[in-house]
Structure formats: structure tokens, C-alpha cells
Design a protein that fits this description.
alpha+beta; 2 domains; globular
Length: 507
């Protein structure tokens, strides 16, 4: 890997394009290096993962709305169009709208892959826009694999180096450039065109983190889909010769100077050398549970404590619980966020899946976690749950913060230590470093786990034949022809989509 040094430049310094981060990203995207077998296998896993969580969300309100919008935008004249999750594969829409609808479906349940470092990310969000363009232009499975490898590489490299959340900028600001770069790789575009698309995608996808604060709304699922849609449109404009603001990162009125660390900021962004394989997807990890990633390990620990210490769940047995964890967990999904909504039993699902006090309480009481049942109003409002939930707090622990930011995969951790103080004065202490499904966890996810997740989540909405068709097709991804790639979608069983009303809007 090479290190690209990024700093703010005054306008009179006239920073050459070749010295700009957007140009360096474009060079990585344009590099024709082959994708390794290990990366290809993981890409297949993540396409399965995306389809699994999309299937489970087909009848949820944000997905219904986004799908209705997409279906109102039929295929344009520039290609064959793209498929929309749930709909008949023969019905095609314009690719930017397929990226939108499928992006919302993938993100709605907060249940797909993650990478955490200087910032947060769900790099599987790259797949919907890249796949939509691939279907539209008649690309092959091999082309799609190459594009997805780039999308993951660029987003993860940016996340390793540049913190957005520290300045309350939403993490999809790293997704717009990565998706644009991945589409550039897919299409075999030149460095100049990709450079312009990356700049436009970044410029149009910077927004505040209020979408993940307080009473979290349905926009949380739409935010990455919007970034993917903007990336598709940015590539289209760049291909037509339209240019972007530059230097987009380094300019004295640019992203770094005014949205991030200011005019004196400097970062070192790791990027592959020319000819070096794009391996970043192997650093990411998926979710076994439908909740914010930093809650994954805590669900596993709570299940363990439920099984090993059932006595602590006797009525009135627990006085209070303190979760000692990283800065990120404490301030984003813990009591350090100072969001009263995180303790509100009437809060939205989007809010509850960003509340570690709620998640730990329910997982401890139930000994399991379910993507629907664990968030139901009845479950959240249960009297004994509300009583215990109010006595769960988090505290930052410097050692767990250090491990969270460690560059050593062997010690990087997303968990912490829990102290359960009983009413009789006794204390139960336990800890966990990584989720069970993490590559270094107790039960690392492998192909059969991704397939099992898909079968479980798709069982109620897809016909058995459709489940088998998709699984057979996706596992041949690198060999797929353009015609076969058009079938890389999921079609809901008869009556599933008709069972939910479709909202009316402008389109």
C-alpha cells in the first residue's frame, strides 16, 4: 500500500490534479489489476448478504416507498435498465432509481456488513449502485466483481484515515466517492472521467449526522441509497464531459477545510499501489444480528450471560448495569449520546437499534435477538424491560477505545466489559472483544452462514424455487454473462407486495 498525504491547499498554490486525492482514487479505480479468488469469494458472500436483508425488508414502509418511486421511472434509452428487489425481473427501471430502491432495501434493517476505524461504514452499500449500472449497460459478472472490489477498497481506505463523525458529517460522504469509483472500474473508464465523477459524488453527498441523532427517522435507510443514486448520476455527467469542483478535498473552501479538521488538517490515506490487488473487503465483517454493529458483541455477551447465569434475571435481582466500552460506542449508541430517546419505549425502531442500553437489556432478558420481534412496540414497552433498561448506562474506557482504533487486527475490538450489580451487593463482571460472527470471533461467518442467513430471511417472502435460483446464480457470479446478470435479483412470492399499500407521491 502507498500513503497519500492529504492537506488543505490555498487557491494560489495551484495543486495539480495528479496531487489530489480524487485523482489518486481514480487511478486505483482505473487500474486493471485482477481480483483475487479470496476477494471474489467474499464479494459473493456479501451479495448474498445484501439480498438476504433486502428480502426481509420488502414490506417495510421505507422500502415500499422507495420501490414505488423507482417503478415510476422506467428504463431510459441508454441501456437495458436495472432490476428492483421484489419486483418481476423483467420489469426494468432507470439505473439510478434501481440504486435508490435497492439501496434502501439493503440498509433498512441495519443488518449487513460493516467496517469501523477512524469513521463508520457499511461498505455493502456500494453493491446496489454498481450492480444497477452493470445490469443497465450489459456488463458481465466478472465486470461486476471488479467494480465491487474497487467500491469496497476506496470506502474502507477512506474510513481508515478520515473521521467524518467527529465533525458530525454523515458517513455516507465516503460512500459517494467509493461508489463512483466502483462504477468507473466496472465501465473501464479513464482516470480523468473517474476523477470528475468522484469529485461530483463527494460534493453532492456531504450531510450532517442529524440523521443518526435523537429521534432517528426513516431517512437513515435512505441516506446511503441517496449517495449511491448520486454516484450513478455523477458518473453519467462525467461521461458527458461535465467537470466537478476541484480540488474537492484539498481546496481552501473544500470539504476538509470547512466540514472536517480545518485549514491546518492533514491525513494519510492508504491506497493500493499500481498493480496491487484490492483486498480491503477482507478487512470488513458482517452482522449476525439486526442492530448497529457496535451492538453485535454486546448481544452475544448478553445471550451468554442469559444462558450461564439465569439467576440474575429473577425479578428485582439487578440493581444497575454499567457497560465499559469505547468512545464510539459510548457516544454514538450509549448513554454518552445524551439522547433521551435511547431510553424511550415509544421510540422508533431506527432509534432503538442505536440504543445499547435497550439492546443489551432485551438480549439479556430473552437470550436471543430477532430482527422484528426484538423491536416490536410490545417488546419495547414491557414493564420489566423498561425498568431494567433505565438502569443501564455506558462509560468510556480508555483501553477499549485504544483497542477500537488499533491497526492490529488481532487486538482491534468493538466490545468491552460489563458490570452487573445485584440488589444484594454482589457483582457479575464479564467482557467480550468481538462479535461471535467476526473473523476472530467464536463462530466466524463463512459461506454456509451467509446462505443460512439468506434462507432464513427470505423464507416468508420468496418462493422456495426463487431462493434456490438466486443462490445457484450468485455463486457463479464471476462466470455470469450479461443476460444472466440480469437475473441477479429477488422476486417476491405472489401476493407479498400486493399485501402492503403503495403510497402515492409526485411520480
Amino acid at each position: 500500500m502507498k500513503s497519500h498525504h492529504l492537506r488543505v491547499h490555498r487557491s494560489d498554490e495551484n495543486l495539480e490534479r495528479t496531487g489530489q486525492l480524487a485523482w489518486a482514487i481514480a487511478e486505483v479505480a482505473a487500474d486493471p489489476v485482477e481480483v483475487s479468488a479470496e476477494v471474489t469469494d467474499m464479494i459473493i458472500n456479501r451479495v448474498i448478504d445484501n439480498a438476504a436483508v433486502a428480502a426481509a425488508s420488502l414490506t417495510r414502509a421505507p422500502v415500499i416507498s422507495a420501490r414505488a418511486q423507482a417503478l415510476a421511472h422506467p428504463v431510459t434509452t441508454g441501456g437495458d435498465g436495472s432490476t428492483v428487489f421484489g419486483s418481476d425481473a423483467a420489469r426494468r427501471v432507470s439505473p439510478e432509481w434501481a440504486a435508490w430502491a435497492n439501496g434502501v432495501a439493503v440498509r433498512e434493517l441495519d443488518y449487513h456488513d460493516t467496517f469501523l476505524a477512524a469513521d463508520y461504514s457499511h461498505p455493502g452499500d456500494n453493491i446496489p449502485p454498481i450492480l444497477a449500472v452493470a445490469q443497465h449497460v450489459g456488463a458481465t459478472g466478472r465486470d461486476l466483481v471488479r467494480g465491487i472490489a474497487t467500491g469496497y477498497e476506496i470506502q474502507i481506505d477512506l474510513v481508515k484515515a478520515i473521521s467524518l463523525h467527529k465533525h458530525k458529517i454523515d458517513h455516507v460522504a465516503h460512500l459517494g466517492p467509493s461508489a463512483a469509483a466502483g462504477i468507473g472500474t466496472l465501465l473501464g473508464l479513464d482516470v480523468e472521467t473517474i476523477f470528475q465523477a468522484v469529485g461530483q459524488a463527494l460534493h453532492t453527498t456531504t450531510a450532517t449526522r442529524q440523521s443518526r441523532k435523537g429521534q432517528i427517522s426513516t431517512w437513515k435507510a435512505h441516506a446511503p441509497a441517496f449517495a449511491g443514486k448520486m454516484a450513478v448520476e455523477a458518473v453519467d455527467r462525467a461521461m458527458r464531459g461535465q467537470t466537478s469542483p476541484e480540488p474537492i478535498y484539498e481546496g481552501e473552501d473544500g470539504v476538509v477545510a470547512w466540514l472536517l479538521d480545518g485549514p491546518d488538517a492533514a491525513y494519510d490515506v492508504p491506497l493500493p499501489e499500481q498493480g496491487e490487488p484490492k483486498l480491503a473487503i477482507l478487512d470488513s465483517y458482517t452482522k449476525e444480528h439486526s442492530a448497529e454493529y457496535q451492538a453485535q458483541a454486546w448481544i452475544d455477551l448478553a445471550r451468554k450471560l442469559h444462558s450461564e447465569h439465569p439467576e440474575i434475571l429473577e425479578p428485582g435481582g439487578i440493581d444497575h448495569i454499567v457497560i465499559h466500552t469505547s468512545h464510539h460506542t459510548h457516544y454514538v449508541i450509549g448513554s454518552g449520546a445524551n439522547d433521551p430517546q435511547k431510553y424511550d419505549p415509544t421510540a422508533s425502531r431506527e432509534t432503538l437499534d442505536h440504543s445499547i442500553p435497550y439492546i443489551f437489556t432485551v438480549a439479556l432478558q430473552d437470550g436471543r435477538w430477532h430482527h422484528v420481534d426484538s423491536y416490536s412496540p410490545e417488546r419495547a414497552g414491557r414493564e420489566d424491560t423498561v425498568a431494567l433498561w433505565s438502569r443501564v448506562t455506558t462509560q468510556e474506557d480508555e483501553e477499549w477505545t485504544r483497542r477500537y482504533h488499533s491497526l492490529d487486527p488481532a487486538e482491534k475490538a468493538f466490545g468491552g466489559r460489563v458490570e452487573i450489580v445485584m440488589t444484594d451487593g454482589s457483582t457479575l463482571v464479564d467482557e467480550i472483544a468481538v462479535a461471535d460472527a467476526h473473523p476472530l470471533g467464536a463462530r466466524p461467518f463463512a459461506r454456509e452462514d451467509y446462505i443460512g442467513k439468506f434462507r432464513t430471511l427470505a423464507a416468508d417472502v420468496l418462493e422456495p424455487e426463487e431462493i434456490e435460483r438466486f443462490l445457484e446464480l450468485v455463486q457463479r457470479l464471476p462466470e455470469l454473462t450479461a443476460d444472466e446478470l440480469g437475473g441477479l435479483t429477488i422476486q417476491a412470492a405472489a401476493g407479498v407486495l400486493a399485501s402492503v399499500p403503495s403510497p402515492k407521491g409526485l411520480f
